């Protein structure tokens, strides 16, 4: 797979499965349970379908995760992890805004559908990381900015499943 330049194209479609409580079943939408692996990122975990690989880059004081199709190299999902997200970045003016939670973490999602019928989503998830015995006000605030742009309904559902599966590791639970 060719090493492509980092594309910071951010967007989102509010997950059909990410309703008010955002309870996740443990697998990505549209993907069989045995075709998903748990990926441990810095400060969070997520379910990643096995047909995708996670490319991790650390430009400075933040981390970029890109989920890319192993065969085509096409990016499915972009995730920024750090303290200073640029959110929203690409959301359409008529994007639907929804305040919700992703596995107990506060989140805001902006979703829209292009005239071409393709779906986009940007989601900002607030994370307080630190040991459970540390009071919330003393924990470190960081963010996950998850996005995809112009994806088919099936690709959007898979990316939505990945976003809905994001959770803090047991030691950092909120």
Structure report:
It contains 1 helix and 9 strands, in the order E-E-E-E-E-E-E-E-E-H. The longest helix is centred in the C-terminal third of the chain and has 12 residues, at 153-164. A 7-stranded antiparallel sheet has the order 3-4-5-9-8-7-6, with helices on one face. The protein has a two-stranded antiparallel sheet with strand order 1-2. It has 174 residues and is mostly beta strands. The protein is globular and about 50 Å long. Helix content is 7%, strand content 40%. It has one helix at residues 153-164; strands spanning 36-40, 45-49, 52-57, 63-69, 75-82, 96-102, 105-113, 119-129, 140-151. Strand 4 (63-69) and strand 5 form a beta hairpin.
Largest sheet: 7 strands, antiparallel
Number of helices: 1
The 3D shape can be described as globular
For the largest sheet, list the strands in their spatial order: 3-4-5-9-8-7-6
Radius of gyration: 15 Å
Helix percentage: under 10%
**Percent strand:** 35-45%
Q: What's the count of strands?
A: 9
**Succession of helices and strands:** EEEEEEEEEH
Question: Would you tell me the structural class of the helices and strands?
Answer: mainly beta
Quick check: average pLDDT? Answer: 78
Any low-confidence stretches, pLDDT <50, length ≥5? Answer: 1-29
- Determine the N-to-C terminus distance: 38 Å
């Amino acid at each position: 797979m060719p090493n492509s330049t980092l594309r910071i194209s951010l967007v989102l479609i509010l997950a059909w499965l990410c309703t008010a409580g955002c309870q996740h079943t443990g697998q990505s939408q549209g993907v069989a349970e045995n075709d998903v692996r748990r990926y441990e990122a810095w400060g969070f975990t997520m379910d990643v379908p096995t047909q995708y690989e996670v490319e991790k880059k650390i430009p400075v004081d933040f981390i970029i995760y890109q989920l890319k199709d192993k065969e085509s190299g096409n990016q499915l999902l972009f995730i920024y992890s750090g303290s200073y997200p640029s959110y929203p970045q690409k959301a359409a003016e008529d994007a639907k805004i929804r305040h919700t939670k992703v596995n107990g973490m506060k989140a805001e999602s902006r979703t829209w559908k292009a005239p071409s019928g393709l779906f986009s989503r940007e989601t900002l998830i607030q994370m307080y990381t630190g040991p459970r015995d540390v009071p919330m006000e003393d924990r470190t605030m960081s963010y996950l900015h998850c996005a995809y742009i112009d994806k088919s309904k099936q690709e959007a559902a898979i990316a939505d499943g990945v976003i809905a599966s994001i959770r803090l590791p047991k030691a950092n639970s909120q």
